[in-house]
Amino acid sequence: MRISWQIVVFVCVLAFGLTYWIGARGYDFITPPDAYATADVEAVLASSPSDAGGEATTEPPVDEVASEPEPEPSLEPEPEVVGSHPSDYLDLQAEGVDAYIALAEKLVAEQKSEHSLVAWERVLDSAKADATQVKRAYDILKLHKANSPDNATGIAITVNLHASVPADLFEKMEKVLQHTATLIEMGSGYSLRVTPEVSVVAVKKGRPRPSVSIWLSGKSESPRGSFRTKHSKVLGLDEKVNTVIFNIVGPFLEQHTKLTPISEMHNEVNAQETLQYLITRHSWRQFGLLLYQDLEESAEE
Predict the structure, then answer these.
(1) How far apart are CA 129 and CA 87, in angstroms?
(2) Distance between CA atoms of 299 and 301, rounded to whole angstroms?
(3) CA–CA separation, 16 vs 10, rounded Å?
(4) What separation in angstroms does the CA of 196 have from each of 53, 185, 214?
């Protein structure tokens, strides 16, 4: 049986039309394409987080994030830390011992202990302190004064320490003089380098036993001091030597400088501690310098 062509055409048109209508019925063929792009952007913005005022916020690019400005370097120089020197505060000598003690206490309060020790040294070598003031300065210096070569100031001055002795004291005096030389170096803050030299005095038969003679030298010599011994088994030989040296240094400095060192050994200080603490670093160095000067020149500080 043949189907008429009219029916076939009608069925095809119907199928095509129905398919087209089902697939395209949701499309908008009237609104321009740009309107769809705008609507999509608004939808994206509407779905993004917003701040308290309801306005959308966006993160700025990393390069545009404001960074805190770096602090400008200070134009003011940092305060210079000045170390103490054994010859500090000599300009206060005319003001006397009370001024030095007040200065020492002030420096301690300012936590400048090293400088304070120098002020206490000035009590001993630049002001006429009484026994109480000497004892106070001595106690503080004995407790705190540095006795290390690392604290040396300036180039060491070479000084010879001499002892002329009877032959039977030669070996004993060598040991004593070596120890005394070390004490002087320590007391001077290692501004002196001391070399001991012992010589023997010849004793003629029938002559009195010679005394022990002590002195120091550089290019010139200090005054000499001496003491007598009855025999080779003398006790306290080291204290006798140190006492003689103390009695040489003080008057020699007072004669040739403006220093006023302690002239008498404190009764509570043994001879060894005298060379370390009662004669100051500045005094020892000035003493060493005097041994290389023409002592006919005017006294120097």
Answers:
(1) 18
(2) 7
(3) 10
(4) 95, 12, 11
Q: How many residues does the chain have?
A: 301
Residue closest to 114 by CA, chosen among 141, 150, 152: 141
Phi/psi region, residue 189 (left: phi>0; alpha: psi -120 to 50; beta: rest), is left
Q: How confident is the model at residue 301 (pLDDT cuts 50, 70, 90)?
A: very low
State the average pLDDT over residues 246-258: 95
pTM of the predicted model, to two decimals? 0.71
Share of the chain above pLDDT 70, in %: 72
Buried b (16+ CB within 10 A) or exposed e, 208-222: eebebbbbbebeeeb
Instruction: Provide the b/e sequence for 174-197 (b: ≥16 CB within 10 Å).
Output: eebbeebbebbbbbbbbbbbbebe
Q: Among 286, 218, 221, 276, which residue's Cα sits nearest to residue 256?
A: 286
